[in-house]
Amino acid sequence: MRTPHVHGGFTHPDSYDRHTRRLLTRLRARILDDIAAAGLAPGSRILDVGTGPGRLPLAIADAFPSLRVDAVDLSAEMIEYARRAAGDTPVTFTVADVAHLPFPDDTFDLVVSSLSQHHWHDVPGGIGDLHRVLRPTGRMWIYDARYALYRATAAARASFAPASVTRVPIRASRLPIRLVARLEARA
Ligand SMILES: C[S@@+](CC[C@H](N)C(=O)[O-])C[C@H]1O[C@@H](n2cnc3c(N)ncnc32)[C@H](O)[C@@H]1O
Question: Are 130 and 186 in contact (CB under 8 A)?
Fold first, then answer.
């Protein structure tokens, strides 16, 4: 099934990947640094939501082989593309909507998402389901354009303990301005 409207303006996973692979290197590096700083125990589970061509979960699996990495995307085409790109890298890719995740409660130690949240049709439903699949000590990090994170921030404050919800601007490009922010919440 083709879902061109959710590929960030690109009509095919291959063109999205070609245009963004290098462009998003800095953001991916920042997310890897954040994961390193989190000091997750071996065997911890990470979920990447709205993974697109799968570059982030593949980089996580390469950098942190002791972690178990899953990734989901609404687009079957993106997941097919990501599976091909993965080769032998141990990442499990699944077609799923963030608001209806096919995982039991309390499954993940960390949920990440990069530049996907502004596409979600049901932001409160998505945030609620991310909270559901997090373990009681788990964390959610959503990286997206700063201006696009207001609904997700409100939804996170309604679902998580409001004091655990923060939004930190980050530099994700060579530009001196901080266009992207990380929305964080703790289960
Ligand atoms: C702009 S791409 C970002 C891809 C990748 N995370 C990155 O940083 O390059 C947005 C992705 O979010 C996915 N997406 C949109 N709505 C979604 C939803 N409700 N649940 C899961 N994935 C979704 C799209 O299919 C698309 O692959």
Answer: no
State which residues form the domain around 24: 4-186
pLDDT digits (tens, 9 = 90+) for 134-181: 999 999 999 999 999 999 999 999 999 999 999 999 987 766 678 899
Q: Residue 168 is part of a domain; what is its CATH number? A: 3.40.50.150
Q: Say how many Å lie between the first and final Cα of the chain, rounded.
A: 34
- Nearest atom within ligand 1 for CA of residue 78: 27
Task: Report d(CA 136, CA 154) in Å as an integer.
Answer: 21
Which one of 116, 127, 129 would you pick to mutate in the ligand 1 pocket, going by the greatest count of ligand atoms within 8 A of its CB?
Answer: 116
Total domains present in the chain: 1
